Amino acid sequence: MTATSTGAASTGRTQPFAAPKGIPEYLPADGFVRVRDALVAAADRAGYGHIELPIFEDTGLYARGVGESTDVVSKEMYSFADRGDRSVTLRPEGTAGVVRAVIEHGLDRQGLPVKLRYAGPFFRYERPQAGRYRQLQQVGVEAIGVDDPALDAEVIAVADEGFRSLGLTGYRLELTSLGDAECRPAYRDRLQEFLAGLPLDDATRHRATINPLRVLDDKRPEVRALLADAPLLVDHLSDTSAAHHAAVKRHLDDLGVAYVENPRMVRGLDYYTKTTFEFVHDGLGAQSGIGGGGRYDGLMEILGGQALSGVGFGIGVDRTLLACRAEGIAIDDAPRVDVFCVPLGDEALDRLVVVAAALRRAGVRADVSYGGRGLKGAMKSADRSGARFALVLGERDLEAGTIGVKDLHSGDQESVALDTVVDAVTGRVRG
Ligand code: HAM
């Protein structure tokens, strides 16, 4: 599309652009970074190393890794041909990319488990609504190469700790097991047989043949009523999966992480086996899932690696931020700087620009009032910046070789030698 087709040229005025539909953006006061970093910090404390993944990958990675029959792959991917005519896709999730990277770099040939964390944007062409975006932000972890229920519990506890560290309380952890290659096929047959005997509409009947487990998640009351007696996978687990599930629950009990069992949980991605979980917040309306994850025993092999299992989570940062707001948790009260410099005149500006740079070098956050503003306007900016101290430099100070240091909390003001102000203020900010 050319610029003229927007209609801007015909009015002779440039229309302001808007961010694309369904894509949220976060301003400094929104507290996005604090929420994201709190979630990341919980993963750091458990030894997960940062991996920076590509924003787009070969489309085949997601088709194979996430599953062709999922909504994510069949309807929601941002796929396009690049200039070399290769089909690439903006990453809809992180697990497939992490597993691809582990295989590509041979990380699984070193100590196991490989513990990685990631944070950033993901892309799904969904119908936008409150809490459901086309560019969503996740913090995720993956622990690959060790099939131990204690590791599943660790992953869950790390997510729980991330939420708790923000002060969130209004959420619950839902847990189930999706079994393994031994018990799933038999259960699938059993469920399909059950579904075949129900008066379902054509679309649902079709879904029952492709992915019968997903039918269990139908939200329509009339279908729910029909499904009341459906066989549940948790009642038909193999001995291995049942023991694994019991052990995960025992570890969660030991860790004091509360959960409720939801045997009808259906995740939107196909790779899950055994442990599967979701964190659900009650204050968010329809888009209540603030995080989810589970174990994926076959994914490494599907993507061409060794037969190693993995377990991980993805937390929605957008929704976690909404959950904080819903619970009235004030996220951004952090001041931007410690010191705000107020020059009165050109010569004062020259000096304060250097003072501010020296303060920053000393680790003190400092800002300057630019543009030759008067004392009143500059002091307003100082208040808005959240600074503890304002440094006020006028002509008379310059002559005397001094500078005014105002404590914006107490209102006290004193005069300090200009030559020593960096040390003096640094000491006060630290003290
Ligand atoms: P997921 O459940 O598809 O799992 O996404 C994880 C979280 O991302 C969701 O719980 C939700 O908070 C957030 N989210 C998903 N879609 C949207 C959206 N359209 N708008 C806003 N937030 C959204 C995964 O992506 C898996 N890779 C998680 C995982 C890691 N499993 C194992 N390891």
Automatic annotation (TrEMBL):
Annotated GO CC locations: cytoplasm
Biological process annotations from GO: histidyl-tRNA aminoacylation
Binding, L-histidine: 93-95, 124, 138, 142, 267, 271-272
Start and end residues of each Aminoacyl-transfer RNA synthetases class-II family profile domain: 35-343
Region (Disordered): 1-20
Subcellular locations according to the entry: Cytoplasm
InterPro entries for the chain: aa-tRNA-synth_II, aa-tRNA-synth_II/BPL/LPL, Anticodon-bd, Anticodon-bd_dom_sf, His-tRNA-ligase, HisRS-like_core, HisRS/HisZ, HisRS_anticodon
EC number: 6.1.1.21
Top-level taxon: Bacteria
Major localization class: cytoplasm
Positions with biased composition (Low complexity): 1-12
Keyword Ribosomal protein listed: no
Record-level Gene Ontology MF annotations: ATP binding; histidine-tRNA ligase activity
Keyword entries, A-Z: Aminoacyl-tRNA synthetase, ATP-binding, Cytoplasm, Ligase, Nucleotide-binding, Protein biosynthesis
Subunit structure: Homodimer.
NCBIfam families: hisS (TIGR00442)
Similarity field: Belongs to the class-II aminoacyl-tRNA synthetase family.
PANTHER family: HISTIDINE--TRNA LIGASE, MITOCHONDRIAL-RELATED (PTHR43707:SF1), HISTIDYL-TRNA SYNTHETASE (PTHR43707)
The name this protein goes by in its record: Histidine--tRNA ligase
Lineage: Bacteria, Bacillati, Actinomycetota, Actinomycetes, Pseudonocardiales
